[in-house]
Amino acid sequence: MYNNSERRKFDPAKFNSSKSASKSANSPDWPFRLNFYDKSPWYEVSLEDFERYALDRLRVLAEIESSFARNRSWEELKSVTTRQSKDHLPLNSSSASTVDTQAERRNDHLGHFVLRLAFCRSEDLRRRFVKAETALFRVRYESDDTKERELFLQSRDFKWTEVNSAEKLQYAKELNGLGIQQPEEKVPTTERLYKVRWTQVPDLVNKRRVLLKDGWAYVPSKEQLSIVLRAFEANLENALDLTARSIMRMDGDTRLTELLNHMSRGFVAGVASEYSGPITGDEIRADMVDDLAKRHFPLCMRNLHECLMRDRHLKHFGRLQYGLFLKVLGLSIDEAIAFWRKSFSNLTDDKFNKEYKYNIRHSFGLEGKRANYPAKSCQQILLTDKPGPSDCHGCPYRHFAPDNLQTSLLATYSSQGLTSTDLAEVMRTVKEGHYHVACTRVFEITHASAGVKKGDGIGEGESVTHPNQYAAKSIEIEKAQQGDAMVE
To answer: Is the N or the C terminus of the chain less surrounded, counting Cβ atoms within 10 Å?
Structure first.
């Protein structure tokens, strides 16, 4: 990354004044799709918008980070990010006539600055935020309208100088080594070259893709993006440092600090999106649960089910996590009562009705304040209600000891194609703290026979972010296979 002196080269306050002064009073607030986010929000926003647009952006950034953890190629990452952006963070070019591009850019602008507040709080969060944001900027840069992108580049001072014909001829032999050839002797190449200080493009220097002369790097136009990305990184790093020093002023506003802490914890967990509800379309009966668990449940729910079958009991947080999961999967209130009564076979009817039946009905919104509680997401399971030594709830990828996790994975999924050779990759992602990536990889391995390939995730490259998402997709894949078999 840049040192402090290099970051100051890209201080937005030091941009060429003649370029910034050209903006007229009637110019749009966001003239370009690309944005370095120099100017903080100057407009009033509701708390609802404050949260909504930050979470929309967080979903996209979380999937980018997941792509890095899964070692996706740039083209794969670009494809996944484009799909996620279309769903959660649309941003059209100025030529789009059927959408309000200014509203899109305002939402994008707001979401970025809210997440700055959330992720400026530690060096690790800042590093991950800069990496994900830079990748998002690059995706947008490469897909931007050519003319609009050129206007954006002209609007900023990137501290480069376009190389003139005399210098091109002077260094023609050296440039030829970079694959930049003159059309004929004493005729300079028509390809654009940019001269910058070598410290602005250390990655290109390291890869020997530039010509170095007296501390200057001669950068071919095809490598221009590297200059822009380094400038974006330096600009954002500097801004995050300033935000971190100013964040203490907000500590008294509990409305915001609680929300920002929630967002930053979600990013640490690598999870952002939420599961909206069941997609199987079928009601689950009590007598189906055991078979479904063995074929379709993620490890967290499979572990809860095995504990319940073994001990004929689950502690409170285990019942809550598993019960809500089954409810959202399609278990009705009557079937839920039947399932839990059968599972707690060592209890009398009177004890079950007095101590457990009420809580089951409560989780369905039929008792108490009558709230229809959703199932817990991966983020909630990872970050709340940490299990104790004798508990069965939580996320096995995070809460199991490494040896126990490997044993459990093989015991649970070896019949579905998981082998000991697969464990190294899964355990590597666990060690790096990408628990949802490990779960996603297990899903891919155990559904490989159905045509799921590495990188597919639970569909279109998306990572697992909810246990119900995992189970519902697994059931959907099985139904599709059965349908194909009937056609044949």
So the answer is: C
Quickly list DSSP for 32-93.
-S-----SPP-S---HHHHHHHHHHHHHHHHHHHHHHHTT--HHHHHHHHHHHHHHH-----
Residue 217 burial class via C-beta count within 10 angstroms: exposed 0-12, middle 13-18, buried 19 and up: buried
Kindly list the distances between the CA atom of residue 73 and the CA atoms of 60, 162, 420, 454, in Å, as whole numbers in the listed order.
17, 32, 25, 12
Please say if the pLDDT value at position 205 is more than 60.
yes
Take residue 66 and report the two structure tokens written for it.
């997941």
Q: Of 152, 334, 125, 145, whose CA–CA distance to 236 is shortest?
A: 125
Which residue stretches of 189-332 are H helix?
202-206, 224-246, 254-268, 289-296, 299-311, 316-329
Q: From the DSSP assignment, how many helices (H) and strands (E) are in the chain?
A: 24, 4
- Per residue in 364-405, pLDDT (tens digit) is 999 888 888 899 999 889 988 899 888 999 999 999 999 999
- Please give the model's pTM, rounded to 2 decimal places: 0.78
Locate all alpha helices (DSSP H) within 185-251, ordered by sequence: 202-206, 224-246
